[in-house]
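Q: Here's a chain of 405 amino acids. Please give me its 3D structure as tokens.
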Amino acid sequence: MADVNKVVLAYSGGLDTSVILKWLQDTYNCEVVTFTADLGQGEEVEPARAKAKAMGVKEIYIDDLREEFVRDFVYPMFRANTVYEGEYLLGTSIARPLIAKRLIEIANETGADAISHGATGKGNDQVRFELGAYALKPGVKVIAPWREWDLLSREKLMDYAEKHAIPIERHGKKKSPYSMDANLLHISYEGGVLEDTWTEHEEDMWKWTVSPEAAPDTATYIELTYRAGDIVAIDGKDMSPATVLAELNRIGGENGIGRLDIVENRYVGMKSRGCYETPGGTIMLKGHRAIESITLDREVAHLKDELMPKYASLIYNGFWWSPERLMLQQMIDASQANVNGVVRMKLYKGNVIITGRKSDDSLFDANIATFEDDAGAYNQADAGGFIKLNALRMRIAAGKGRKLI
């Protein structure tokens, strides 16, 4: 422990990280630098500055990372139509590599020799933070208090805070029964009644979305403009990446879109039930697939779909900064050169319904696809030979008496 002189702590100002701050000071006898990220979680981050100052912190970083988060992490992920285990849009997973990146940048700026985080030893986040940190600064020391200390309950944390005069209210507003994480892409909920997989989630748990039953009886129509696979405008109005996502969250939330209740497989080995609100991301995924449906070559689209589960696992498991993810990203980004155009969709009571798509780069040819007379654009007689050639191996096997049933 004597070799740690300065630590950069991912600091929210809440109970856990405030206790960690003091614990680091006492246990490692080191200087602590705090880093608080604004990723669009919807909560004030400035109060963390006052709390850190009160605990003797001299170097305090509070960074607005919303645009970088959506532009450099969320958008690249959605170019791949990324979904983990068929449902999860990776809202927590995709935020961790950015936090790891900034932790390392601050460590380099301040001359710190260690970083620290508040992730527990049971979850995925410890893996994501640390894989990112080691990829970006191989020799960095990582301190994970939840794997070292014996403060393994909320009451023990509160007692520690009280004993050391850490500015945390023991009696304040009612604490949520859930473990929650929020950023511009989603809010996640774990714990509480959700630990019983048969118990229905509670309606008052949701923060961003109305229930589909309570959503408006009139549909909302929107148009998304895409350039190189990214949304650049809503209803013809140019917007920055973070503004796009915030606006889609608002519109989607009003229409009851983006609720999810799943049991997922954590990288550390256990199953975990989580509920997620991802209104904007749900709209983005549907819209992106719609614009790709007219602008991507068939085999390119199918290859992307085959590779997507691997890409999703890499992000979920914390390998954003790995060479294999970077390689896949280059291929995915190259596929998006002609993914340009406009998608029109109808939002209604939890549903995202595509009603139109158009592009100057569209591969859809109405003259060929028509059920009417195509004036010779497609010779239907060619299909006979095509079918016979594809059936050849099966005809040979059948001629040899191979049984299929």
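Q: Can you summarize the key feature?
A: The domain at 6-75+92-163 is CATH 3.40.50.620 (Rossmann fold).
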